[in-house]
Amino acid sequence: MYKYLVRPLLFLLDAETAHHFSFKSIKVLSKLGFGALFRSLYLVEDPKLEREVFGLKFKNPVGLAAGFDKDAVLYNELSNFGFGFVEIGTLTPKGQPGNPKKRLFRLLDDQAIINRMGFNNKGVFEAVEQLKKKHKVLIGGNIGKNKVTDNDKAIKDYMICFEALFEHVDYFVVNVSSPNTPGLRELQDKEPLTALLKKLKKQNGKLAKKLEASPKPILLKIAPDLTDDQLLDIVDIVKNTAIEGVIATNTTISRKGLKSHLIQTEEKGGLSGKPLTKRSTQVIRFLAEKSNNSFPIIGVGGIHTAEDALEKLDAGAALVQLYTGFVYEGPGLIKKINKALLERA
């Protein structure tokens, strides 16, 4: 139904307009009682799908990647489509409009999306208010820095978001790999990244002790454009900072091998979708092998079929996330992945 009726109608709209229309539609339909229908259509529940990762128990290993529910306004409704976890954000201390529109582009011939959104969000404190609702699903908090914040002051921005969200999310994701905030990827360099993660780990322990709670898992989201040497640095950084894991990967700045019209492919921003399938799996496999599977990896990038998800899990991922595949394939993809996992069990 989605691919033959809903998607053609949505794709008549500008990509960002379609995103907001979808959000409002899901919200309205859920209020009208359609949540139960969505669950009956898409939710797959079975103890064999459960995964324990980072000390958290996931109902199934298929999550929604950050960038879809930036302001934590739809996580419960989205859980009705069968996701085992939902990652909100990227959130920054202060709300910001992001980059000028037009900033979201579909590449239909490549089953891909280019975005240069630029961390548009209402700010972490507004998200906290949304997160005070009861959660039906595990929530990840993806955090970043404001565009106007210089890199030498970036740690403060990450700390503000971390402290604000600590009591409201189940795990954290440190986003230093988006290509759409000027200079952000420089924070992936070994020295600044190590300093940032050590600071967050220290604060994690302090907050946990103060609130008599368990520390929250901290994950690092990395770019697919890193070299092998840079990926080896990531392995060292995870070990030296004792963070809990890695999300591989964010969007790519590469435009290699695209079929779409040159005018589209030359748009600036991060590319996601099918063209990223192979590279993200390569990064997962490299990290898993070079680290001797010493930390969990969430695999994301170009998952459009159940086979794509299984490949990432086989390469060493403990969990997977969808974004562009969810846009192109619809919620039926979540069900297909979970059904394929059950067939294997």
TrEMBL record:
InterPro entries: Aldolase_TIM, DHO_dehydrogenase, Dihydroorotate_DH_1_2, Dihydroorotate_DH_2, Dihydroorotate_DH_cat, Dihydroorotate_DH_CS. It is a peripheral membrane protein. Its cofactor is FMN. The keyword Flavoprotein applies. Pfam families: DHO_dh. Pathway: Pyrimidine metabolism; UMP biosynthesis via de novo pathway; orotate from (S)-dihydroorotate (quinone route): step 1/1. One of its GO terms (molecular function) is dihydroorotate dehydrogenase (quinone) activity. The active site is at S178. Its EC number is 1.3.5.2. FMN binds at A66, G67, F68, D69, K70, T90, N142, N175, K221, T249, G273, G302, Y323, T324. Monomer. Belongs to the dihydroorotate dehydrogenase family. Type 2 subfamily. This is Dihydroorotate dehydrogenase (quinone). It comes from Flagellimonas spongiicola. The gene is pyrD.
